[in-house]
Amino acid sequence: MIQPLQVIINGQLIAEKEATLGIDDLSIVRGYGIFDYFKTVENRPVFLEDNLDRFFHSAELMDLPIHYSREELKRQIQLLMEVNNIPESGIKLLLTGGYSVDSYSIAAPNLIITQQPLQRNLGQEKQGMKLITYNYHRPFGTVKSIDYVMGIQALKKARTVGADDVLYAQEGLLSECPRANIFLITKTGTLLTPGKDVLAGITRKYIIEIAKTHLDVEIRDVTLEDMKNAAEAFISSTTKNITPILSIDDTVYGANPGPITMRLQQMLEPIVFGRKVDLRC
Amino acid sequence: MIQPLQVIINGQLIAEKEATLGIDDLSIVRGYGIFDYFKTVENRPVFLEDNLDRFFHSAELMDLPIHYSREELKRQIQLLMEVNNIPESGIKLLLTGGYSVDSYSIAAPNLIITQQPLQRNLGQEKQGMKLITYNYHRPFGTVKSIDYVMGIQALKKARTVGADDVLYAQEGLLSECPRANIFLITKTGTLLTPGKDVLAGITRKYIIEIAKTHLDVEIRDVTLEDMKNAAEAFISSTTKNITPILSIDDTVYGANPGPITMRLQQMLEPIVFGRKVDLRC
């Protein structure tokens, strides 16, 4: 018999299909909450400490107290992994604004931990994606907020013009994709990525570390001009790893991923997956 | 015996304390949903048709199909009013992104109708409030989205400087408060209110109608200069009716509500409440 998928709400294990929040939770009435997300590879949580750092950072900035210690959170995650037994998975920690007495004030947050099977999209990582720029800057850029209203609406626009997603850009500066960080590689081989008021992606962090041993890396304001003049581009996230970008708006980088992007993919592979995967087309 | 408060979820009556949404609803995981809100006065819904118009408008713009006809929604509202029997109340229609298969795509929306006792804050309507400007413009301005992350954070900032709430202003233009529309009255007695990309407040609509019979009314871009030069200011909403503004940032309009504001309050009163209430201090 297959066990039903379990989740943990406020420390209690419960079957996912029975897991609910009361309708006065501040996520439902005011879209207020934060989360974080990491994956497991062969039952090993990947970059868990980094994700917990960011989870506590987001919670603090949005005034959401976490009523568990870091060690207790890790115990809950471990328990969930044991009962669900999904070796390749994504685990989400979601912290909402809680049951608000006046539908506006932050209350005692509800903490939900979920786990879902996660299948790698190797095709997309090999073939790449197309982006369009979208005039927006995410407020509270360093916070992993649940607020994806713009991301969901923008994706619709991207698809109507044959693109796969959007890249937020405002006042001439790139910031990030709704669910990924952006990198450019200049014609002289320098790696560029925006540094201010964007999500501190964990995959981004390790890409910067490995790139520094081989390339010049500049973490700074990245302009639309940089974008137009770049030789290569890619995005990074927990689910997308390094995914090449073939074009942004009318700027075409090539029909295939660029060579430095592919080299970085190869270098990132053992750090994330602990073994080599052939990413060549 | 006092009956427990009832709500309606997807057409079904249920006790409010048992009313829940599954944790994969798009409001919880991505802050995605819209709502509308009207009050009842002596068991009479106030401006219901206007609110339903705006509810359908918000839903359409955010790609959320409403699986009930307007008449069926009215029947559900009527039923809820009968079982709860709260003559002076606020009724909310909340439409979420639904149970998303991939935690990102819009699914069949969940529709929640709630009713709560609503007590008028006459003290605030008589004495007025203080605002500070806050650099933000609400995306999808004509949509009554559940996205109040900025409003909740901004309120915290307002309170630290002794103000009651914020007024969004960006690039020199006022737009709205997080939960109310803004009006200025110039020194020459013209009523000003922003017209572009702000919520089409229902109370705002009736204020404009009554003001037009007595004042020049300009619905146009309203600048920070207009704000500094104005003689009076007030905000409007379903719960706040016309609430005078005594100051915005360093601009002080007076220690007491202005005379035109008070006159408009008196004129609005019978339209909203069907009878006169003495609003004089």
TrEMBL record, chains A, B:
UniProt keyword terms in alphabetical order: Aminotransferase, Pyridoxal phosphate, Transferase
Gene3D superfamilies xref list: 3.30.470.10, D-amino Acid Aminotransferase, subunit A, domain 2 (3.20.10.10)
GO biological process, one term: carboxylic acid biosynthetic process
Keyword Transferase (UniProt): yes
Cofactor(s) demanded: pyridoxal 5'-phosphate
Entry annotated with the keyword Phosphoprotein: no
Pathway involvement of the protein, from the record: Amino-acid biosynthesis; L-valine biosynthesis; L-valine from pyruvate: step 4/4; Amino-acid biosynthesis; L-isoleucine biosynthesis; L-isoleucine from 2-oxobutanoate: step 4/4; Amino-acid biosynthesis; L-leucine biosynthesis; L-leucine from 3-methyl-2-oxobutanoate: step 4/4
An example molecular function term from Gene Ontology annotations: branched-chain-amino-acid transaminase activity
EC number annotated for this UniProt entry: 2.6.1.42
Superkingdom to which the source organism belongs: Bacteria
InterPro entries per record: Aminotrans_IV, Aminotransferase-like, BCAT-like_C, BCAT-like_N, Class-IV_PLP-Dep_Aminotrnsfr
Catalytic activity: L-isoleucine + 2-oxoglutarate = (S)-3-methyl-2-oxopentanoate + L-glutamate; L-valine + 2-oxoglutarate = 3-methyl-2-oxobutanoate + L-glutamate; L-leucine + 2-oxoglutarate = 4-methyl-2-oxopentanoate + L-glutamate
Family, similarity comment: Belongs to the class-IV pyridoxal-phosphate-dependent aminotransferase family.
Name listed for the protein in its UniProt record: branched-chain-amino-acid transaminase
